[in-house]
Amino acid sequence: MQWIWESFKHIYAILAVLPVIPFLLVYFGYAAFTGDRKKAFRMAMDVTTALLIGCVAVLFNRVFNSHFGLYGIMLVLLLGGGLLGNVQYRVKGNLNMPRIMRAIWRLGFFLMSFCYIILMMIGLGKSLFTV
């Protein structure tokens, strides 16, 4: 049973290191299967967000020598959900939780992509220029 967990961790680590690869695999695979490119793009974003969250958390921990990466990301996502829910409640008078969660998850894709690029450049710079 232990080898299943170890295999899962290794596959996740490989896919999370270069999130462009799973994005392209899901996009082209789902687009070929359904023929709907917009839905394939959204599906690829959703899958890649899960990988980016783990990768950005590890990069944050390595770059800043802390253990707050995953907790900080979850805090930002929860605060974003609360703020978006407040706006939706004030505008429409009710809450549509699946819509709020989908919006936060997809906004998280863009935020995590930006953080991934920035933290990867900082991490590479630190490793190249420190003696």
Comma- or semicolon-separated keywords:
single chain; 131 residues; mainly alpha
Plain-language structure description:
This protein has one domain. It has 5 helices and no strands. It starts with a helix and ends with a helix. The relative contact order is 0.10.
Please tell me the total number of domains: 1
Structural class label: mainly alpha
Q: How many angstroms does the end-to-end distance come to? A: 42 Å
Sheet with the most strands, sense and barrel status: none
Rg (CA only): 17 Å
Shape: globular
Order of helices and strands: HHHHH
Strand content: under 5%
Mean pLDDT: 92
Task: Compute the number of helices.
Answer: 5
Task: Determine the oligomeric state from the structure.
Answer: single chain
Poorly predicted runs are none
Q: In which range does the helix fraction lie?
A: over 70%
Number of strands: 0
List the helices and strands and how they pair.
Blueprint (H helix, E strand, L loop, with lengths): L1 H16 L2 H15 L2 H28 L4 H24 L4 H33 L2
Helix pairs in contact: 1-3, 2-3, 3-4, 3-5, 4-5
Protein name: DUF3397 domain-containing protein
Organism: Paenibacillus rhizovicinus
InterPro entries: DUF3397 (IPR024515)
Brief synopsis:
The protein contains 5 helices and no strands.
